[in-house]
Design goal:
Blueprint: H1 2-5, H2 13-40, H3 49-77, H4 87-92, H5 103-114, H6 130-134
Length: 135
Amino acid sequence: MEDQLKPQYQSTSTLVKTMTICFILNAIIALVSVPLKTISAFGPGAPDIAKIKDLIFLTLIVLFSIRIYRANLNARALGAQGMRFSPGWTVGWFFVPVMNLFRPFQAVREVWKASDPNAPERWDQKETSHLLKIW
């Protein structure tokens, strides 16, 4: 019965690769859009790059949300217990006004610490990564 409740570890490498492609496409579109804005200033007919960029941005939001959700589940699958934030709220805090200023950091910090496969019992005593502190 307990095995059915424990989440199964799932790799997020495909999500990360897809997000990387979206970031690269977004950067390319940003570079291309500057000359296109100049062309469109002289008349109609230039493609509306903004719609494509918005679609890529929306895709990134969805992929990032799935990635953070999955990371929380993976930490639990690795054996982390006593986590304060559920997978849903790890994502949800990004969308709650005012709380989105600090709760996402706390939730992601918890997932980062709890994801250490070498010390799942003592994850809460682990120091926060310097990369995460920069955020």
